[in-house]
Write a structure and sequence with these properties.
Order of helices and strands: HHHHHHHHHHHHHHHHHHHHH
Strand content: under 5%
Largest sheet: none
Helix content: over 70%
Number of domains: 2
Shape: globular
Distance between the termini: 38 Å
Mean pLDDT: 85
Length: about 450
């Protein structure tokens, strides 16, 4: 092992130590520890007992039956967190935890979240270490050391992101393919909004990647169908109830309503945050956000579909979609840990040198600092202390930059990697011929 790879591993190890120690400390100090897992856990317990997991009154009864504190003094947002806002497919993964008492279930969830994120960071480092091992270790380690909120809340995103990264690694390395199929299938079932676009890349890329994508889709259906039928039997109106639960999260004044109140440590990072500063009508900011996101994603999809894919171009495709997929659909700050999949592309561009390499390093560094659980709070608090005039359009734009820097840096990162990705696609199509050994392997007959 070279000295550079050892240095990268040391930096990743340092980030892992900080991640574990601070995460454990926050979990024991905070009264809201594992609040997101509680919502999933007690909803799954309802299903196990053949009760409606999407009805808040049923879930609250489970809290009371399990000895949870009464809700007489709970705030509206506290009660709202007890609503299940995930599709029935997510319950396939949660039901086994619901068969355990709260203590062991919480410990097991904590272990899987912590271990999974560390393992996913190692896999991302391994992909980038082929080009710049020290830089890859620094980026992955820094992002991991700033991911404690996933431990604190126990949100399913931690496990979904880890499984998604594992599946991507298996497919790109062409190793442990059955494990990769299961990992990506579980990720799709738990939080499809986090993993769906990575699955789409493999489907559009063709060749053996499409074969793996179709196998993953089949596995997802096979895993999800039994619990979906179970939920439909127990709660025949689950779709209306899920829609109602999600609608409650986006009422004015809630933490998930676009605006400054939703931009905290557990805030939103999608484009609606930015657009809502100019147009407060949900129909306006949703429509414009969907339009911008759709155009960027369509450009990415067309390049992916028409290009011959080498492993190097795959890094660019995945880095692009890691950023762009967070923008049109509602995502929280903890979902941005998916950006660990931008590490290989950044390392590759850095190793190639030149202005593009420096720009990639700058974009990734600024983005990782802003989305960090601690670094982001420090930097954002400093930015928001700057006093600027809010008069006129210019002042409103500057205020928006101060208030919503995370969605804006995600847009910059997505557009930057999309630009590099499009340029790489044009270079491979120059004379209509690409060496076959640079492309995704074809499916063996």
């Amino acid at each position: 092992m070279t000295k550079a790879r050892l240095n990268g591993l040391y930096l990743l190890f340092l980030g892992s130590v900080v991640f574990i120690l601070v995460g454990i400390t926050l979990s024991y100090m905070s009264p809201d520890a594992m609040v997101d897992f509680k919502a999933s856990y007690y909803s799954a317990r309802c299903l196990v007992q053949h009760r409606d997991p999407y009805k808040q009154s049923e879930v609250l009864q489970e809290y009371h039956a399990d000895g949870e504190a009464p809700f007489a003094t709970a705030t509206a947002s506290d009660l709202m967190m007890r609503r299940l806002v995930y599709p029935p497919t997510a319950l396939f993964f949660t039901v086994p935890f619901a068969l355990l008492p709260w203590g062991p279930a919480r410990l097991l969830w904590f272990t899987l979240t912590t271990g999974g994120l560390i393992f996913a960071s190692f896999l991302a480092w391994d992909l980038g270490a082929d080009y710049a091992p020290t830089l890859s270790g620094a980026l992955a380690g820094f992002l991991l050391a700033n991911s404690e909120v996933l431990i604190l809340l126990g949100n399913p995103s931690g496990i979904a992101i880890s499984l998604c990264v594992a599946g991507v690694w298996c497919f790109l390395r062409e190793r442990f393919i059955p494990a990769g199929i299961l990992c990506l299938a579980f990720s799709l079932a738990i939080k499809p909004q986090d993993a769906a676009f990575f699955w789409l890349f493999f489907f559009l890329a063709g060749g053996v990647y499409r074969k793996h994508a179709l196998q993953t889709l089949l596995a997802t259906v096979a895993l999800s169908l039994p619990v979906l039928l179970w939920v439909w039997h127990v709660a025949p109106h689950w779709m209306q109830e899920l829609h109602s639960n999600m609608r409650e999260l986006f009422v004015p004044g809630s933490v998930d309503y676009p605006g400054p109140a939703a931009s905290g440590i557990n805030g939103l990072v999608n484009l609606q945050e930015v657009v809502s500063a100019f147009w407060s009508d949900p129909r306006a900011y949703n429509a414009l956000s969907y339009l911008v996101g759709a155009l960027l994603l369509l450009a990415w999809a067309l390049v992916t579909l028409r290009s011959c894919h080498s492993p190097k171009r795959a890094w660019l495709a995945l880095a692009t979609i890691a950023a762009l997929s967070l923008l049109p659909v509602y995502h929280h700050l903890y979902d941005t840990k998916l950006l660990v999949l931008t590490v290989p592309a950044c390392a590759m561009l850095w190793a190639e040198g030149g202005l593009i390499g420096w720009l990639a390093l700058l974009v990734n560094t600024v983005c990782f600092v802003l989305i960090g659980d601690f670094s982001g709070v420090i930097v954002l608090s400093g930015i928001r202390r700057l006093h600027v005039s809010a008069n006129g359009l210019g002042g409103q734009i500057v205020t928006t930059l101060q208030t919503f820097p995370v969605p804006l840096i995600l847009l910059v990162m997505g557009v930057f990697y999309l630009w590099i990705y499009v340029r790489a696609g044009e270079s491979t199509q120059g004379n209509g011929h690409v060496p076959e050994d640079l492309c995704v392997p074809k499916v063996q007959k």
